[in-house]
Amino acid sequence: MTHDTQHNTPDFAGNPDAAADGVRLQKVLAGAGVASRRVSEDLITSGRVRVNGKVVTELGRRVHPESDQVAVDNVAVQLDTTRRYLMLNKPVGVVSSMQDESGRPDLREFTDQFDERLFNVGRLDAQTSGLLILTNDGDLAHVLAHPSFGVSKTYIAKVEGRVSAQTVGKLQSGIELDDGPIQADKARILASPPGDGFSMVELSLHSGRNRIVRRMLAAVGHPVVDLVRRQFGPLNLGTLRQGAVRELTREELGALLTVSRSAPTPNRDAALANAAEEAHNNDDDVPQAER
């Protein structure tokens, strides 16, 4: 993957397959790393490739990589090879900012090794560790971070006290907080030992309200001791160690792009326009003072 950040689309200058009406589809698929050109031709003729939502079977089809959306077996393909997508297991004590004005440890420690100008998708507060996406794809970042698109995030929390099944039911049916009602998409107990020790709880939700996981658990009588985000949409932290960063696999990226492109909202364009502005006030459990 190229580190050149001066262009937002691949440069096809001097390419004999490039023309005013685009680039041959099989060449674009091969260039994106989907398969060899010969195998890409087989994918096309067997009806497994879609361009802008429509199945394409003719080998002479040309596309514009900077604007057309291509999918293989209904999984989105990124044609713009200047885009970079990374997964970080953010450590505790690092603020979700590319430059912290107070001089605290920030995300530059993990992005300085890359040539591209990267930014984080959403935020985690300084005391929360776990999965954070780093990218230079602004449209995808806005879709994934904005709560109106309904991208689910899963957290594992170590909390005070013994969590009961009734408490889990309350989290899923909904509770009232100072800024309105909230409910978890899913909740389950991972460990709840007898006595007044600590419990482990898994919580999934798509809300982006400030510190929402911590506030929900505190509201049901179980303050958070430790919080880790394990999953973001189709991505799972897996065995990535804390403080480590890696490229997304082709399969992970395809799943992520598919979620982004199929975001179910009638007001997608308006939400995209407002996402950047709202991100500073309504992102992934982080108050302004802790970003």
TrEMBL record:
It catalyses: a uridine in RNA = a pseudouridine in RNA. PROSITE patterns: PSI_RSU (PS01149), S4 (PS50889). Residues 260-291 are annotated as: Disordered. Keywords: Isomerase, RNA-binding. It comes from the Bacteria. Belongs to the pseudouridine synthase RsuA family. Residues 23-87 form the RNA-binding S4 domain. Its EC number is 5.4.99.-. Residues 267-276 have a biased composition (Low complexity). GO terms for biological process: enzyme-directed rRNA pseudouridine synthesis. Residues 277-291 have a biased composition (Basic and acidic residues). It is an enzyme of class 5 (isomerase). PANTHER family: PSEUDOURIDINE SYNTHASE FAMILY PROTEIN-RELATED (PTHR47683), RNA-BINDING S4 DOMAIN-CONTAINING PROTEIN (PTHR47683:SF2). This is Pseudouridine synthase. GO terms for molecular function: RNA binding; rRNA pseudouridine synthase activity.
